[in-house]
Design a protein that fits this description.
It contains 9 helices and 4 strands; from the N terminus they run H-H-H-H-E-E-H-H-H-H-H-E-E. By secondary structure, it is mainly alpha-helical. The protein has a domain at 91-247. Residues 7-17 have a biased composition (Basic residues).
């Protein structure tokens, strides 16, 4: 017999026993399942400490301090939600903004096109990668002339310069004048690399100009969609072109 029961028996009192938790209330958690006063006390002190910390934070805060989120946020289902401001613009203002966007993109595209023309005039697309090779056709009257044909002799140049599509002097020119330009293989390799870099830059500018043209078309399409005229989409928008719509014909006065 425990000491509590012995003391209750001597004093003539009825011993107190902890009542078991009903099965219907076991789902409510640990604090409702057992009368553990230590757990309840720890939970109570934890909540009191949190409240004191919040009160101190509120007292230390500047009362004149203001944040825009104070008026733009609201509590929805226990979660702070930022209110999204509504666009207060008229359809005419949207059209004007679209027009300005188109003008800006078109201005940048024209500037890019001018740079492309300048690069083309400097490079002349000589030995460019991806460029279709030029075809030089020779015509003969007899089959014998075709069999005896020598391209170096016909072009009046040395065989080493036959493969060149530019700067291909004749034998007479080579005999009269000295060879101009770089002759060192290392220097020639460096010049070839510089020319390749220029061609790569030209290719990038051409692709950028095409992309700007597509962007301008897409902006114009979105501007046209602001019209209230009935329209039907004929083709979906792709990365290389805007969507195509068919508008209902309306006779204008």
């Amino acid at each position: 017999m425990s000491s509590a029961f012995r003391k209750a028996a001597k004093s003539g009192q009825r011993p107190h026993r902890e009542r078991a938790q009903p099965a219907c209330r076991q789902k409510l958690g640990l604090l409702e399942k057992k009368k553990d006063y230590r757990l309840r006390a720890d939970d109570y002190h934890k909540k009191q400490n949190a409240l004191r910390a919040l009160q101190k934070k509120a007292l230390d805060k500047n009362p004149d301090e203001f944040y825009f989120k104070m008026i733009r946020a609201k509590l929805q289902d226990g979660v702070h939600v930022i209110k999204q401001p509504k666009d207060e613009v008229t359809p005419e203002q949207v059209k004007l903004m679209r027009t300005q966007d188109i003008k800006y993109v078109e201005m940048k595209r024209v500037a890019e096109a001018k740079k492309i023309e300048r690069l083309k005039s400097e490079l002349h697309l000589l030995d460019a990668e991806g460029k279709n090779p030029n075809k030089h056709m020779f015509f003969f009257d007899t089959k014998k002339e075709v069999e005896e044909f020598d391209i170096a002799t016909h072009l009046d140049t040395v065989p080493e310069l036959v493969d060149r599509v530019y700067n291909r002097p004749t034998i007479a020119t080579l005999q009269k004048e000295t060879l101009k330009g770089a002759t060192d293989p290392a220097h020639l390799k460096k010049l070839a690399q510089q020319r390749k870099n220029q061609y790569d830059l030209l290719k990038q500018r051409i692709e950028r100009e095409k992309a700007m043209f597509v962007v301008a078309q897409k902006i114009q399409t979105r501007k046209d969609l602001l019209d209230k005229t009935h329209k039907v989409k004929v083709k979906k928008e792709t990365t290389n072109g805007p969507a195509i719509y068919k508008f209902k014909f309306q006779r204008k006065r």
